[in-house]
Each structure stands twice: as C-alpha cells, then as structure tokens.
Amino acid sequence: MVLKIINATEAKVGTNLIVDDVPCTVRSIDISKTGKHGHAKCRIEAIGIITGQKKVFVVPGHERFEVPLVDKRKGQVLSIGDKISIMDSESFETLEIPCSDEIKSELEENSNVEYWDVEGEKITKRKL
Q1: What is the largest CA-CA distance in the chain?
Q2: pTM for this one?
Q3: 41 and 31 in contact (C-beta within 8 Å)?
Q4: Which of 15, 50, 55, 86 has a CA 20 to 30 Å removed from the CA of 67?
C-alpha cells in the first residue's frame, strides 16, 4: 500500500523509495541544474531495505517515485533458529522473521528487537 508519491527532486538522503518494485533507502542524491532546453537530472544512489543491494540510476527531475509504508515495531525474541520467532510487544502475535547473521549473533532468547514491516515483508533490524 503506497501512501505517497514524490518527484525525484524532492527525495533527500534517508528517504525511502520504491525502485524497480524494491523498497530502497536513498544514500546520496546529486541534482544537476536545468539546461537551456532540458530538465534537471537526478543521480540517485540507493540501497535496498530488505536485500541490501545497491542501485545507482539517473532520472529526470520530474520522475515520480512511490514511497513505501514502513511500519517500525518492537518485539521479544522467543526462539532462534533458521528464522527467529518474535512476539509483537503491542498485539502479542507470534511471527517468524528472517534475520541476518550479524544481528542473530547478538540475540538471545527473551531479548527485545526492532523489526520493520515494509510493504508486507518483515525484517529484523536491530537489538534494543
């Protein structure tokens, strides 16, 4: 569910965008001035929120991007395996969420974590 659409020139560092159907976070943006017969160009460097893949692309300044809905939530770790089992702190529902090895090494049972729900996909971000 997309709540907002912005132009490329409105994007700032840290803004979340959907690029090629992948939610990404803008790491840097360079905006050129308009020419005599042209439009401003934006060179955007973004990193996928879920995949971590880097994307670099150049688009016209009037290009429109969708802004994904990112819901940041807290939960308690119930068990650690291939995926970690988390109980949401507000709704008390149990979720199976994939986790990177870096974060998994810091976690233990009954510790608290922050997880993000990005357009229906959940990912563990950090230990609280």
Answers
A1: 62
A2: 0.76
A3: yes
A4: 86
